[in-house]
Amino acid sequence: MQPELKMKLKLALAGRANVEMGQLQFLNLEEVKQRAGSDWPHLRTKIYDVSAHFIEKRLDADDVTFRCQGGFLIIFSVLTGDAAAERVAEITAELSAFFLGDQALETLKLAAESRSVSPEEFLEIIAQAQPQEAEIRPSGAGGATRDPGGDPGRPAWAEDEPLAETGPPPPRWTQSAAKPRSTPWDDIVFKPCWDARTNAVSHHLCVARRVINGFPAYGRETFTVLDSRPLNRLLDHSVAIAAQRGFQRVHAAGGSCGIIIPVHYDTISSLSERMSYFAILQSVPVPIRRHFQLRIDGIPDGAPEAQMQELFRSMMPFGSKIIARLPYGVSKLRRFEGSGIGMFGTEIPHRLGDGEVSTATVQAVLGLVTAAQDLRAETFLTQIENTSLLGASVSAGVRLFSGDLIGPDQAVPTPARPLEFNDIAHRPAPSYDAANVVHI
Length: 440
Hints:
This protein is an alpha/beta fold.
């Protein structure tokens, strides 16, 4: 270790009971190397130089960064906890987006983690990680996590199974007994959706899930940081890839079903971010895209109508229908006129899902259905938990439903299958078991 770097490390660790550490680890480097052939030395330099640039622009002046075999280690001078995790997540998301556009790096993946360690433990990690270069002199700001859904640059459609994580193994701390959380969500699951018109489980909603105190939270509810654009992007990219792979499992076995893919408005509102996200959707062959529907979440109240029209219509080539998810109780939809939205929906608040259905709840559902019909669109409801609400909503004209009443979360989707209302009504009341996800 160079003397200057050794001195910086000493200062960073001095007098601290714990330090906040981040790690970025490249995966599949061996595969990239084999594909690159004689161009590998140049490509390897590019990988590390680009990554160093991204890190340099997003850290503070007193942070210390080491280039190690297979990645980078960081000591944060000020940031701790969620703030440090947020900074690592931003770097990971933006690096993943950059590598997405380079064909030579399409199999490269990024894993990233952040946690608090003792100075002694960090020195042990440094010894294991084999430092290779002096630190970067950074300044900037920025987000923590790991890319759980695979590499956005590799066409998920071409794979039957998740990508193998090859390449140099990460330092031993990533495999400790107290495994650090690498993303806010635990896994990505498929929620069966019942179509009241066809009396069938015809679709699956693909969502990230996190179990908190024995109960599931979904999508952005898994976040511990309320406002996180990098996490939004990472989540949406991961879910899109998982959705494609899930459908391919069904398709490869000769089956078929619809897949609903949620994406946050912020992820696709700017042209550059939209193109990054669309690059994932483009991996699906055009004839297959009719099986996918895109659901936009988090649409701002003040979003300009012209912007929404341009945005939603640009998404139409990638799916058979564009869906808008709105807050519960919203029934004024005129601002979406001309946007090409084919379905509007909302999530039933948990407090309204139990017991008898109130008149106010029925009126809220009916108001949404009526407003959607005025725009020649259909409606959906999620988090359906009891038969009374399901029956009232079907009578009101809602078409698509998901929730525990319809069926448990699944690790992979299943082919479309018939399911009558009476079969739903007479099955035992659903109960959630965090360890009991259906694996097909």
